[in-house]
């Protein structure tokens, strides 16, 4: 092998080594980034759960004590949705259901609906939406206190037939110029309450997943 060929072979080997190292570093960076994203998502979920159900009410980890359920008609999505379960001394305290209002003005509205074991709403929070800024985004707790009106409500308060916005003959406020958004959220929360009432036992049973019968 001539000197030139040896130099070419050596250079090629060095380039291949750097490429291998670079690929490994990219993979490690990607893995670390995924872990950070997962950790941030878990922290954000915990923060919202603590807003809905004070930590003093339970002694388990609701994020770890979670199941997935598939209930398209009741919860608004054909995909499995997470239910976080809060317990104290092993006894059920509350469940936080991931719920989708599929008929928002700007598209699906993703919610967390916290329901005490007795069927009373502990609270509702919006997780994700595409509603109109300055109008429909009033469903966000940061924008208005409208969403807080759900706390303490149940299927008997108000009666089921009154679970509508005022424009439709119900008791819930609508927004000026944006009735579709609150209408969608109210209907989604009502469906979640009915689902909880019908599946309370299964939701708190030990397990990993459940499907709508």
TrEMBL record:
Presence of keyword Hydrolase: no
Keyword terms of this UniProt record: Cell inner membrane, Cell membrane, Electron transport, Flavoprotein, FMN, Membrane, Phosphoprotein, Translocase, Transmembrane, Transmembrane helix, Transport
GO terms for MF: electron transfer activity; FMN binding
Cofactor(s) the record lists: FMN
Superkingdom of the source species: Bacteria
Enzyme Commission number(s): 7.-.-.-
Compartments where located: Cell inner membrane
Domain FMN-binding stretches: 104-196
GO biological process: electron transport chain
Major localisation: membrane
Cellular component GO terms held in the UniProt record: plasma membrane
Annotated membrane topology: Single-pass membrane protein
PANTHER family: ION-TRANSLOCATING OXIDOREDUCTASE COMPLEX SUBUNIT G (PTHR36118)
Similarity section: Belongs to the RnfG family.
Function text: Part of a membrane-bound complex that couples electron transfer with translocation of ions across the membrane.
Summary of subunit composition and partner proteins: The complex is composed of six subunits: RnfA, RnfB, RnfC, RnfD, RnfE and RnfG.
Protein name as it appears in the record: Ion-translocating oxidoreductase complex subunit G
Lineage per the UniProt record: Bacteria, Pseudomonadati, Pseudomonadota, Gammaproteobacteria, Thiohalospirales
